[in-house]
Design brief:
The complex is a heterodimer of chains A (537) and B (437). Chain A has 537 residues and is of the alpha+beta class. Chain A is built from 15 helices and 25 strands. Chain B is built from 18 helices and nine strands. Chain B is globular and about 75 Å long. Chains A and B meet through helix 2 of A and helix 13, helix 14 and helix 15 of B.
Chain lengths: 537, 437
């Protein structure tokens, strides 16, 4: 094989092109805008070469070759639209469809099904198959995964995922020939922390998430590119909502963070958004406050406070934390500390995927905005101040999934403050007897920037809609408070606040919402256009 | 030089499988010479010069195959002996292993010396219980006599031989399918490249040879490449085992020089078509080969001549069908086999084999349509050359040739409401063909 630095000249559909040596035909063709269809190929998995849909015509072989495994070579001539190539593709489509049920109307995969898409493009418009179709099993493979065997095209993506990425190897193909179907061994269900990914990578509706089954037609859902708040890894996710309500989370490709995967804790961890204990409206001394009156009530309480402390949580965005800092500074003599949720267990997988033990999405960001001792020294100082009753007014942010509040010790201490203002996602002891309770946004509802454990800033976007939540976000309430305090003329968007932050803070300098884009950036990597020092010399 | 049998000269004699008997006939002398007197490269060159071609079915030149194995390798090298013999109509390797196991072992020693291999696996078809026991006994005996083991035949060459029994899958006779099976995985062919010679068993360079191929080696060393090449045609020389089954008076295994006429093989050696009937069709090289009609049987049984006749020598499993055979039933029988044995990995084979069986079945039971005949041909076209291994081809070749060459049988079955056997058993159902569609 030639060395990896050299380039190879080859011919694609009659045009001579160049690519890095060692690339497969499929990868190289994609660089030149030629998409070759695929079922069994997945960039994150080993090459199986079994679906045969990616066959193309080659001058080096009397038979069509599979472009997922054949590599480009000097002088190679590949045709993807010749009669041989088109017939090869059409053949595979005809074969794939003969035993595949025509149950798209009741199949959860419909609308995002690779087989549907390829059938539309390469398949016959009617079937020459007049025999009875094969019947294969429909059953539970695990607590979250069901299989519709009749739909299975035996691409083995899921099997390879469990072998190579999760390393748990629960799935296998049983039987032979057209009886082949994915299954588990008796008594060994697929039950690993990455199992949900097998549903995502299934190119057909064979593996189905029992959580999402019959929940929505995928084309009706709205998608929000966001970041999972389940741990400090910050997996990039797509939040899919129907009529404003989250229906499922799917991973969004980001090779610097989560590849193509996400864990099941994050995937199914959105139910707290719709818990019965969710706070929906603000309350002042037990009386409901209108959404527009929240910031006024907040201002009233703070303006009469002699000493104010802020307790922030590591779910808050950098923008929210920046606002807290501005407000605290202008109040004078106030302190800021933060609480952290209990640590979980770190999980590492053979495929390189990691679930972090730290269950907070923005500890790093909070430390950049509010100082490195926020969760340590400052927290200890605030604890003792609260214990000896020296705090007049406490503004506590109790976010995240919120069922446990800020944890036992903090929950007790919060109630010791003279006056108490609580931003909370869930009701609990921390709200009882509070002077002002303000509903808070949870992860997936926030608009702003989180910094993950690798110091990578990523934008989390809100999937909120008018029908799902009625209350204004903290970003709005805190800015309205600044308007009342005559620090600000009008509220800005999260991007506007981030601009203020990047101007005020060295750590964020040079970055902006648009430069972070969909996939984020390490904080140390300043965008080229914005770097004033690096660019000119 | 008159033809001398090398595989089967003594198979009717008592204890012909024993080490004592084998050594009494000069056994292991060539292996001893190979180990002590021959240089590995000279062995490979001699086998190349003899133009020994693989007897497993593909007919690839054995010496050339050995030459692909890297001379220097930091990994161990392996020999995987393909004794899975599961091609329908083939039962030649079985004979060698049951009646002449030491001949195979001698061939293994020569091959291993030539390529520098110190561990050979014999992958034997699971149903060959008797053969596996015979082979294991022969290996045990060879170890105890110092023929195998640390110092093979008194040389400093080390060789271990392991018998691995299959579990009944046809696909494990495909070379990479066999390797995955030995490795302990589901028996499925692997993508090539990498080829086994570079990356085979356990990811190491591996020679895969058929039993009969290896059994040729002592003889090649004995008489020399030049003399060996004089046996049969120049391009595929050597003695050959032909398996004849089906409608003949005297079915069996016949050792003859390569290139014997198919007609002679059937009429003289196998006693002719049975019951005085006429010949209808012959599959010359195991069920994966294109079928020949009675008129096409004046063909020499060697690799080139059969290829020129549009079929293949394959495993030399000759299946003879007489004039009473309904080719619809024959097609169904063959397609049922390939449908059952497809590993299910590649789409065209997984779906195509099942489809072909269903069509053949429908025609046989009276639901056939004239357009089905073109459909069979088109399905076959769409299967050939589009899969990882050759099982799809193996199913498509007989299917397309049977339908093409015996179209009248199919038309009759479609018109009469099924194959003759079906109509005879279900007289009331004939004519109800459309009910199946």
């Amino acid at each position: 094989m030639s060395d990896s630095n050299s380039t190879v000249r080859w011919t694609l559909n009659g045009t001579e092109v160049e690519n890095e040596a060692g690339m497969t035909i499929m990868e190289a063709a994609k660089v030149h805008g030629v998409d070759i269809p695929q079922f069994c190929y997945h960039p994150g998995l080993s090459i199986a070469g079994n679906c045969r849909i990616c066959m193309v015509e080659s001058n080096r072989s009397p038979k069509p070759v599979i472009s997922c495994s054949e590599r480009i070579a000097e002088g190679l001539e590949i045709k993807t639209q010749s009669e041989v190539a088109v017939d090869a593709r059409n053949s595979v489509m005809e074969f794939q469809l003969i035993n595949h049920p025509l149950d798209c109307p009741v199949c959860d995969k419909a609308g995002e099904c690779v087989l549907q898409d390829h059938s539309y493009e390469h398949g016959p418009d009617r079937s020459r198959f007049v025999e009875d179709k094969n019947i294969r099993h429909t059953k539970e493979l695990g607590p979250t995964i069901d299989i519709w065997g009749n739909r299975c095209i035996v691409c083995t993506r899921c099997v390879r995922f469990c072998d190579e990425i999760s390393g748990t190897g629960e799935l296998c193909v049983v039987e032979r020939g057209d009886r082949s179907v994915v299954d588990v061994f008796p008594g060994v269900p697929i039950d690993n922390s990455l199992a949900g990914n097998t549903v995502d990578i299934c190119p057909v509706g064979a593996l189905i998430s029992s959580d999402f089954k019959y929940e929505a037609r995928v084309w009706n859902m709205d998608k929000t590119s966001s970041v999972c708040g389940g741990c400090s890894r910050g997996c990039n996710v797509e939040v899919e909502t129907l009529d404003g309500f989250v229906k499922r989370l799917t991973p969004r490709e980001n090779l610097d963070v989560n590849d193509w995967w996400m864990c099941d804790h994050g995937r199914y961890g959105w139910r707290h958004l719709y818990a019965d204990s969710r706070l929906e409206g603000a309350q002042h001394d037990g009386q409901a406050v209108s959404p527009t009156g929240t910031s006024g009530a907040l201002h009233q309480l703070l303006s009469s406070s002699s000493s104010t402390a802020f307790l922030v949580d590591p779910f808050m965005t950098c923008e929210e934390l920046h606002l807290v800092r501005s407000i605290a500074n202008s109040l004078g003599g106030s302190t800021i500390a933060g609480w952290l949720p209990a640590a979980g267990t770190e999980e590492n997988f053979p495929g390189g995927f990691k679930i972090s033990a730290d269950k907070h999405p923005n500890r790093k960001g909070a430390e950049h905005v509010l100082g490195g001792d926020l969760f340590t020294t400052s927290a200890d100082q605030l604890k003792s101040a609260l214990s000896n009753g020296s705090i007049d007014t406490l503004v506590a942010f109790v976010g995240g999934d919120g069922f446990e509040g800020a944890g036992g010790e903090w929950n007790d201490l919060i109630s010791k403050a003279g006056k108490r203002i609580v931003f909370a996602t869930q009701q609990g002891s921390w709200c009882e007897g509070a002077d002002l309770v303000i509903p808070a946004t949870a992860p997936l509802e926030k608009e702003g920037v989180w910094v993950n454990e690798d110091d990578r800033a990523q934008r989390t976007r809100s999937c909120r809609s008018l029908t799902s939540n009625h209350f204004p976000s903290e970003l709005v309430v805190l800015q309205e408070l600044q308007v009342h305090m005559e620090q600000r003329n009008r509220p800005l968007s999260a991007a506007g606040i981030f601009r203020e932050l990047s101007e005020a803070s060295d750590a964020f300098s040079g970055h902006s919402h648009s430069s972070l884009g969909d996939s984020g950036s390490p904080l140390s990597q300043r965008p080229a256009a914005m770097s004033s020092e690096g660019g000119q010399s | 030089m008159s033809f001398r049998k090398i595989f089967t000269p003594y198979i009717h004699e008592d204890k012909c499988h024993s080490l004592k008997f084998y050594q009494g006939k000069g056994g292991y002398e060539q292996a001893r010479k190979a180990l002590n007197d021959w240089q590995p490269d000279d062995l490979i060159e001699t086998v190349k010069a003899a133009n020994l071609r693989g007897r497993g079915g593909a007919g690839f030149p054995t010496g050339v195959k050995w030459g692909f194995v890297p001379k220097q390798s930091d990994k161990p090298k392996y020999l995987a002996v393909n004794a899975d013999e599961s091609e329908p109509g083939t039962f030649k390797d079985r004979l060698i292993m049951e009646k002449n196991p030491h001949l195979l072992l001698e061939g293994i020693i020569i091959c291993c010396k030539a390529v520098g291999i110190h561990h050979a696996y014999i992958y034997i078809r699971g149903e060959f219980v008797f053969g596996a026991n015979r082979l294991q006994n022969a290996i045990d005996r060879a170890y105890s006599e110092g023929i195998l083991g640390e110092n093979c035949l008194g040389s400093d060459f080390k060789l271990d031989v392991t018998v691995h029994r299959g579990a009944g899958a046809y696909i494990c006779g495909e070379e990479t399918g066999m390797l995955t099976s030995i490795e302990g995985d589901r028996g499925q062919p692997k993508l090539k490249p990498p080829f086994p010679a570079v990356e085979g068993l356990f990811g190491c360079p591996t020679v895969v040879n058929n039993v009969e191929t290896l059994a040729n080696l002592p003889y090649i060393l004995e008489i020399g490449a030049e003399e060996y090449r004089k046996i049969g045609p120049e391009n595929s020389p050597g003695p050959k085992l032909f398996c004849v089954s089906g409608h003949v008076e005297k079915p069996g295994v016949f050792e003859l020089p390569m290139g014997v006429s198919l007609r002679t093989l059937i009429d003289e050696h196998a006693g002719g078509v049975w019951k005085g009937r006429k010949l209808k069709a012959v599959i010359p090289g195991g069920s994966s080969a294109h079928v020949l009609t009675a008129d096409e049987c004046d063909v020499a049984m060697d690799i080139e001549s059969l290829a020129a006749a549009g079929t293949m020598l394959g495993s030399a499993g000759v299946i003879v069908m007489d004039e009473t055979t309904c080719m619809v039933d024959a097609l169904l029988n063959i397609m049922r086999f390939y449908h059952h044995e497809s590993c299910g990995q590649c789409t065209p084979c997984r779906e195509g084999t099942g489809w072909l069986e269903k069509i053949a079945h429908r025609i046989a039971v009276g639901g056939g349509r004239v357009e089905d005949l073109d459909l069979v041909t088109e399905v076959c076209d769409r299967m050939v050359g589009k899969t990882i291994c050759a099982l799809a081809d193996a199913a498509a070749f007989p299917a397309e040739s049977i339908v093409k060459k015996f179209r009248e049988d199919f038309v009759a079955a479609i018109e009469n409401g099924g194959s003759p056997a079906w109509v005879k058993r279900h007289p009331a159902n004939t004519g109800g063909a459309a009910a199946h569609v």
